[in-house]
Amino acid sequence: MTRSLWLIVAGVVLVFFALPFHGLAQQKAKETRVIASGSQVSLEYTLSDDKGKMIESNKGKEPLVYTHGNGQIIPGLEKQLVGMKVGGTKHVTVKPEDAYGPVNPKAFQEIPKTKVPPDALKVGATLVARSPQGQPFPVRVHEIKKETVVMDFNHPMAGKTLAFDVKVLDIKVAESKPPETKSPAAK
Hints:
The chain is of the alpha+beta class. The protein has two domains: 30-100 and 159-172, Roll (Chitinase A, domain 3); 105-152, Beta Barrel (Thrombin, subunit H). It is 20% helix and 32% strand. It has two helices and nine strands; from the N terminus they run αβββαββββββ. Strands 1, 2, 3, 4 and 9 form a five-stranded antiparallel β-sheet that branches. A four-stranded antiparallel β-sheet has the order 5-8-7-6, with no helix packed on it. A hairpin with a 3-residue loop joins β7 (136-144) and β8. The longest helix has 30 residues, at 3-32.
């Protein structure tokens, strides 16, 4: 064989043997990624109440994607996910104080019955109110009195112990940023 043919054969053989190792290296890197502050995490979850009744799930749907440590999910769940790896599963129970907080008695307000749409005059009916900043949030009819309606402005899951069954689908490791340097003029 000519020298150039040997080089081609050697190159093909090298690529043939290197491909499996490349795949193993990628798999190993995926296995060693763990959830830490700044990681972008993709999760599959099922949320249930403390009696086991399912509230919601994203199984078979788009994953929940969040950045760990940015307060994008409830604190009790976020704390329990630290250190998990891709493919890891976990059952997490979160008490109200680490979720949506306890029920706040001051979040119940009486409003005139005339301010509530007639079809919503049922205990448990949910309406959408707006914050001073214009953000929508749910409010529930708690009690109906003769002239007023008692509305519950607490989060719908306030006071509830929540159970999550999670599976880590992917973790993108946070990119480290170089330290910021200040110019001598910036004081």
